[in-house]
Design goal:
The longest helix is centred in the last third of the chain and has 22 residues. The protein is α+β, with helices and mostly antiparallel strands. Helix content is about 40%, strand content about 20%. It has a three-stranded antiparallel beta sheet. It has a domain of about 100 residues. Helix 1 packs across helix 5. The chain starts with a strand and ends with a strand. The chain is built from five helices and three strands.
């Protein structure tokens, strides 16, 4: 059994400009949330009840496309890299990786936040349209106890 702790933090609009940190080098903006979502994704195939978990399924597909882009230059058409991250395969062929990150990182941020909300990992407490910030409440397993 896990003790749970809840904390609240404020983050920027889930569609921000990319400034630093990437999920490829495990320094993405919502890296810890992404790792929690990864635990809900099977090693192969769709997520369980993908019709009831469309945001998690979308995140799974985006993770696959992201991996394909930065591992293979987006060459695996089954991963639909160009669909999830338009123009990135062209930039990858030209070795313009910073342009790829400018496209991928904000899209991954948004996918992570939406999937985390859908799965009940975060709740949006408050949205400030003028300040373009979201206040999130994040519940996580703190430690194992018996």
């Amino acid at each position: 059994m896990y003790k749970q702790k809840q904390w609240t933090f404020t983050c920027e609009n889930p569609d921000p400009e990319w400034t630093s940190g990437t999920y490829w080098d495990e320094t993405g903006t919502y890296e810890s949330l992404g790792k929690e979502l990864d635990l809900l994704i099977p090693d192969g195939g769709s997520v369980i009840n993908s019709e009831e978990n469309p945001k998690l399924e979308n995140y799974r597909k985006m993770v696959n496309a992201y991996y394909d882009l930065f591992n293979n230059g987006g060459g695996n058409s089954e991963r639909k890299t160009a669909h999830y991250f338009p123009r990135t395969t062209t930039y990858a062929r030209r070795n313009r990786w910073s342009r790829c990150y400018e496209i991928t990182e904000p899209k991954m941020d948004k996918a992570i936040l939406l999937a985390a909300k859908e799965q009940g990992i975060v709740q949006w407490k408050e949205w400030h349209p003028v300040k373009r910030k979201i206040q999130l409440s994040y519940v996580f397993a703190l430690e194992f106890y018996s």
